[in-house]
Task: structure prediction
Amino acid sequence: MKNSPYLYYNWYKMSYQNKKIAEAAEKLKAELSKTDEPQSILRSPLLKSLYAEIPTLDPKERGAFGKEINTLKAELEKLIAARDDEAEALPLIDVTAPFDVNVTSDAQPGLLPTKDGSVHPLMQELDTMLEIFYRMGFEAVESRQIDDEHHMFDTLNFPEGHPARDDFDTFTLHEKDSKGRPLIAPAHTSTMQHRVLKARKADLEDGKPLAVVVPGRVYRNEDLDARHEHTFYQLEGIYISKGVTVGNLMATLKEFMTAYYQKEVEIKTQPFYFPFTEPSFEFAISCPFCDKAGCNVCGEGWIELLGCGLIHPNVLKAAGIDPEIYTGFAWGIGFMRMAMIKYDINDIRYFQSGNLAFLRQFK
Ligand code: DAH
Result:
């Protein structure tokens, strides 16, 4: 304990005649005991103000006052040096090592061992969903977290200045695209459609269907509440081949929902508008818990889950796919909501809260 600053503090403890200096000394020493940057005390405005006072004093008092300030400064310097010695006296550690592997486990620092961690519930659900789609012959391509207006709007048949763009209000970056428009945090996973279509159109020419799902994190300028997050997750699906119909779309989604909820569900659609599909639908399933009787999960028996439709010919054309030969369907699911329904989670904000009590229920 020889190097303890507290011992030095007592050792060098000075008393000051001038009340102002005595008070300043107490304050500065208290600050020094708390700061991580001991040297900063010497630049303290309080110390500077004492020095600044010297020329304003009666010439008779100046000498004594100046001397006491110098004594205070010297005391502080000694205390600072003591702090530095203390730091040097600490044992050297390898900051890159999580802990010394040669010590017994009870002597290791209390880090959370990986065996006590777990896969985040959302990612567990995503794995379950992807498994279902893999079994149906889909492949997965992850979406991006920074994208541009070309992929979010232009290639998805949103004309420049079209009001539908306002439904996808998101965050922008300072960096710009080649047309001088700000880069964006994508508001939906549909931003990946154009890339997937271009990359996979050779498959179509080889006579294979294009079947891809795109999981990803998406962003929106939202008023936050139990059902809305500014950052959430979608699972996009794209299927293109010859002679694809709305019937294929509905059958695929019904099969998926039934597999995910492990319960035969009924489906219901109503017309909707998306620029990138024609026709477009909102898609709902019968509540897997109450069989349409109405309950606290669904309200009135049906749960609306996603948007979908047949891919608009302009979207196919933008990627160089001939809409006279090929047709396809696409959908976008907010899969946090699917998991919330499955586990009766009443607030979407739990997922990104880092709340261990919540997370541990899914271990
Ligand atoms: N991107 C839409 C949204 O976030 C959802 C969607 C609707 C995706 C229809 C699709 C689609 O691929 O065909 O609201």
User: Anything to note?
Assistant: The two ends are 45 Å apart (CA to CA). The chain has two domains: 5-89, 121-362. Confidence is low (pLDDT under 50) at residues 1-13.
